[in-house]
Amino acid sequence: MNQDLNYKHLYYFWVTAKEGGMSHAATRLGMAVQTVSAQVRLLEQSLGAALFKPSGRGLALTEAGQAALQVAEQIFHLGEQLHTVVHDASTQASVRLAVGISDGLSKLAVRELLGPVMEEPHLRLLCHEGEFDDLLADLALHRLDVVLSDRPAPANPNLKLYSHALGHSPMGWYAPEALLEQARQKFPHSLHEVPVLLPTAHASVRLRLDQWFEQQGVVPRIVGEFEDSALLTTFGSSGMGVLPASELMREKLSQGYGLTWFAPCEGVQEHFFAIGTARKVQHPLVQRLLSPHVDA
């Protein structure tokens, strides 16, 4: 198997897969069918696997072909962006900041955490939401400048990552108007009866909430669990249930979502971290991000 990838061969394969066959690909490329077929065969030889198989009168992707197509899609999507990226970089005096946002972090908190960098007049902010481990991998490969999360990076000798505590905020309980009085009465045991919405285990605060329930002797009536904190807030606002959230967001939840704070969640806090690398820590906007501390 040849380790050197010929991107021209990959492009012919990609067009063939997108067009659904050699004939259509040849028409799009303005080439003979035999030429396209030969180029695809060279790619198959290079990769050491068949990428197409006969299917009726046409062709279908093999398992290897499906995998190759996924990678080709990413490569040529980036290629399509190249002109725009280079043009923007050459014509605009922007300061680019690529931020990874852990899916366990409250989205309402993200705006507060990014507040210090929003003052940059030429900011070009790129936000990527994803699973914590995936974001750390992208950070280590310098695809991101910083990751915002509700937990520090785990110790890993293969990844030189540095966690910076940005602050913390106590958690409180919030209710839509229709559930407010019922939730207040005999709290926390009212959580046996009122519908409760919670974050999933993607959020590190979920473990602390479960421990709090156990300490309080409460078995909550859970009617919904959400990976996305914005969805959790939206469904709470619709009246589906009461929910825990950072007291840092108290005013925003009241004014923007009609959710009223009705009780503290004693001893439970949401933590905020910025995770960077040794190489990227000198980014001026990352430095600005690390300077303040967010506490409710």
TrEMBL record:
Residues 5-62 form the HTH lysR-type domain. It comes from Hydrogenophaga crassostreae. It comes from the Bacteria. The keyword Transferase does not apply. Pfam families: HTH_1, LysR_substrate. PANTHER family: TRANSCRIPTIONAL ACTIVATOR PROTEIN NHAR, TRANSCRIPTIONAL REGULATORY PROTEIN NAC-RELATED. GO terms for molecular function: DNA binding; DNA-binding transcription factor activity. Keywords: Activator, DNA-binding, Transcription, Transcription regulation. The lineage of its organism: Bacteria, Pseudomonadati, Pseudomonadota, Betaproteobacteria, Burkholderiales. GO terms for biological process: regulation of DNA-templated transcription initiation. This is LysR family transcriptional regulator. Belongs to the LysR transcriptional regulatory family.
